[in-house]
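Side project, low priority. Logging it here so it doesn't get lost.
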Amino acid sequence: MPFPVRRLALPLPPVSLREVMRYARAGSDPGEQVLAMARELASETAPLLAGRICYGEVEVALEPPRVRLGDALLVESRDLCRNLQGCSRAVLFAATVGLELDRRIAREGRLSPARGLLLQALGAERIEALCDAFCQAMEESLAGQGLFPRPRFSPGYGDLPLECQAPLLQALDASRQIGVALNGSLLMSPSKSVTAIQGFSPVRRCPSGTPEKCGGCAMASTCPFRRTE
C-alpha cells in the first residue's frame, strides 16, 4: 500500500427521519403512515448495520487540471482541484454500513415496493450519517494542527469520474479492510458504501466562501438532494 491505512468502527448516529424522507423524495409532509413505516424499518434494521471505515492521510499537490494525492492517486478533475485549492493534506476513505442491509432491501422490495423504497432511503441516510460522523472525527483530530476541512468529494461528483473508484479502493485495500468491492459497472458492494476525498487546509471556510456543506459542489443549485438546513 502507498500509505498507512487505518481501520475503525464507528457507532451510527440516531436516524434522521427528515433525511430519510428527503432521500425517498417523499416531500415535506409525507404523512404519519409513511413516517411510522420509516420508524419501524429503522428500528428493525438497526441491529443489522455496522459502520466500518478504512482511511489514510496523504499530501496534496495540485497540477491543474490534475490532482496528485500522495503516491496513491493522480486524477484529472478541475472540480476536485477547485475543492482542494489551498489544501496541504487530504484524507482518503471508504465507508460502509454492511451487506445485511442489501439483503433486507432485496427481500422487502419483492414483498412491498413502499418498504423497499424506504429502506433504500434509510440506507442512504445511514451511510451519509456514518460519513458525517467520520469527517467530524477527522476535523477534531486535525484541528490541533491548524487544519480545517473542505467538503468531502467522491468519484461521480462534478467532473471526477466514477472510474476513480477502482484505484481509490485499491489504495485503501478496502476489500480486505472492510469488505467493500467494485463490480464491472463501477458499483460498490455493499451498495450502501462511499469512497471520498476530504481536503484539509489552513483556511477555515470552504472555496465558495460559505460554510454550508453543499457550498463547494458544482451541482449545488440543481441537486434534488441538496440540504437546506
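Brief comment: Residues 207-212 have pLDDT under 50 and may be disordered.
Revisit when time allows.
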